Amino acid sequence: QFFEVPFDSNMNRTKNRPLVRGQISPLLAVCFAASCGVPGIALLTLGVNPLTGALGAFNIFLYTCCYTPMKRMSIANTWVGAVVGAIPPVMGWTAATGSLDAGALLLGGILYSWQFPHFNALSWGLREDYSRGGYCMMSVTHPGLCRRVALRHCLALIGLSTVAPVLDITTWTFPVISLPINLYISYLGFRFYRDADRSSSRKLFFCSLWHLPMLLLVMFTCKKSFLEKEDKGDLLGGNHGRAMEIRLP
C-alpha cells in the first residue's frame, strides 16, 4: 500500500485505505510493516525451522518487490501473485515436516490453481477500477485470456485432486468425494468463459470462497495417516513380522 498510494486513490475499492486518506503516515506504515515482517521471519526461523523462515522472507520479497510493481507493467503479475498465494500452505507443510516434498508442492499447486478462477472472476467486475488505476490486469487488456485461464485452472483442480492419492498423500476417496465440488466450480468457470458477464463472474467468485475450504476439509479427512505410511515403509523395507524385543529393568 505504501508503493501504491497514488494509484489506489483513483480506484473506488481502494480510495478509502488509511494511507490514501492520510490517516496514517507513510513512515508509520513502513515501520509497522517492518515490525511485523522482521520478527515474523525470525520467529519462523528460530522457533520453527530455517526452511519455513526462508519461504516467509522470500514471499515478502516476491509480493513487495516483484508482484506489486508488475501490476502496472504486465499481465504476468497474476501468475506471480498466484505463486505468492500458494506459498503459505507450503510453509505450513514445511513447518510440520521440515521438508519441501510432494505434499508441500501439491498443496501449493491447489492454492495456485484456485487463485485464477477466484481472482479472474473478481477482477472482471473491477475492470473499470483497474483501468482508472493504471493496472495491467487480464480482465482489462486480455478479457478472452482472462476467462480461458480461469476455466483451465478450474479443470486443473480436478487433476490435482486425482494426483493426491497417486502421491500417497490422501486415500482414493478424496478425488471421488471432491469431484462434485470440482465439477461445480468447473461448470461455473465454463459459464464465465461462455457468457462473459458480471452475473457469471460473481457466481464463480462466490463459489470460490466456499470451494477452497471445502476442498481442503475433504482433503484433510481423507489424508493418509502417518502410521499407515510407516507400516507401508516397513513392509517395503522387509521389516514385516520382525519381533520387537523389550528389555525390562
From TrEMBL:
Membrane topology type: Multi-pass membrane protein
Protein's UniProt keywords contain Cell membrane: no
Give the GO terms filed under biological process for this record: heme A biosynthetic process
Q: Which UniProt keywords apply?
A: Heme biosynthesis, Membrane, Transferase, Transmembrane, Transmembrane helix
Q: Which residues cross the membrane?
A: 51-68, 75-96, 172-192, 204-221
* Name of a matching Pfam family: UbiA
Location of the protein in the cell: Membrane
Cellular component terms (Gene Ontology): membrane; mitochondrion
List the PANTHER family.
Answer: PROTOHEME IX FARNESYLTRANSFERASE, MITOCHONDRIAL
Q: What is this protein called?
A: Heme O synthase
Which species is this record about?
Answer: Fulmarus glacialis (Northern fulmar)
The beginning of the lineage is: Eukaryota, Metazoa, Chordata, Craniata, Vertebrata
